Amino acid sequence: MSSLQAIQIKRRQLVQAHGLDEDDWRDLVQRMTGQRSTRNLKPVQSRALLGELDRLLGGRYEAPSKGSRKSLSGPYAKKLQALWIACWNMGIIDSADDKALNAFAVRQANVSHANWIRHQEDAVAVIEALKSMLERHGVDWTNYNLSPVHCSLPGFKIACAQWRKLEDFSRQGQTLSEYVRHLVDRPFAEMTAEDWIVVMNDLGRKIRAQKKQDHKE
Questions:
Q1: Cα 187 to Cα 13: distance, rounded to the nearest angstrom
Q2: Which of 30, 43, 160, 166 is the most exposed place for a label (fewest CB within 10 A)?
Q3: Which residues make Cβ contacts (< 8 Å) with residue 215, sequence separation at least 6?
Q4: Rounded Cα–Cα distance for residues 8 and 151 (Å)
Q5: What digits encode the pLDDT tens for the residues 193-213?
């Protein structure tokens, strides 16, 4: 069975169990792979999506309310969603869904819904608030002169902060470079934005597991 076939089977199971609709599905695919379609997924993206589907099918998925659901749209939606998910993967917030992001954006931009954020000044208020949250938790947004190109990618910056946040037992004696090479089979210099999404999502799972364990102790 191919990865795509396995994904489609698990998608149908998720639909049957939780009533997942098309928009929900595409949001999920984008969150895990960086693209809104399963067409032409790389093996590492397929593995990340399959892993998340297995997790969701374990009973920890809550389908959005169809009566009140209003997905984010507009020129700044993708940027806001990317930063919000980064906060989730850093363990800063407890929910990655658009409803929680909308509540945050409404407070920051003083609008009735995040979809009304269509002017740069409103978007900047929310974007900078999210970036500041990430910075307080270790993300260095500075672009240093003479640094390799990959060092300027947001995914690299966030992953570095995630790695520093992990305790030794979660790192399993690896460096970040070794971990990334093992996960996506690429050196830093060849990593794409989509590759970094896979890395950030995987590190996010480790951080949330570590956070959960810390709360038990």
A1: 36
A2: 43
A3: none
A4: 36
A5: 889 999 999 999 899 888 888
